Amino acid sequence: MGIRSQEQVALLTDYDASSAYSEAYHTLYANIRFHWSSTQSKRHTLLLTTPSTYAGQATVATNVAITAAQSGTPAILVDADLRTPTMEQRFGLEKSSGLRDLLLEVSITTEKIEQYLRNTFIPGLRLLSAGTATEGAATLLLSAKLQDVLGNICQSLEETESKPSIVIFNSPAVLAGPDASLIGALVEQTILTIAKGRTTRTQAKRAQEQLQRAHTNLTGLVLLDG
Fold it and tell me: Residue 165 is part of which domain span?
C-alpha cells in the first residue's frame, strides 16, 4: 500500500484523524491485524524495515505504533536501530538507557524489561529506546540475548495487559548489515518499506532475498510516496 511521507518528523498525532495521511496508516494497521488474527496469537511481534537507509523509515514504525495504541491495542515500540537511533527525539524524551544497555545485562527478566520501558505521550504506547551503551551495534544484536529480550517483553505484556498487544521493532536498513535479518528471524511478521524514487528495484530485490535467507516471514510492502 502507499503512504505519503516526509523527511522531517511527521507523527500521526500532527494530522487530523480524517486526513488521507491518517487513513493510510489505519489501513496499514488493519492489514497487520488481519495477518495477526490468522495466527490466533494474543501477543504479536512485528518488524518494519527498509532495503536501503531512508530517514522516513523510523516515521513509519513510529506511526504504526501510534495507530495501534490509538486503536486500543497496547503497544511497545523498540528502537533497534542502534546505529542511528531517533525514537527518543520523536517523542520528546531525554536520552536514556535502552536496548543496548539491556543486551549487556547479565540476565534479562520481565522486571528488567519494565525498568527500561518508558511511557510516551500516547496512552497505551511505551518505548524501549536504543540506549546509551557504546558497544558495537552489530555485536550486540548478534547476542543470543536478543531473543531473551523479545521473549521477556512478550511475557511482560502477558502479565500487565489483558487485551491483545503488539511489539513493533524499527531496525536499520536490511542492506546496511545483519540487524534487520537477525530481528526478522525472531518476529512473527516483517514488512518492508520501499521509498518511491529512492529505493531501486535492485535494492528491493536484494533486501527481499536477504530476508528470505534469514527465514523471516515477509508479509508485505509499504510504498512511501515522496
Answer: 2-225
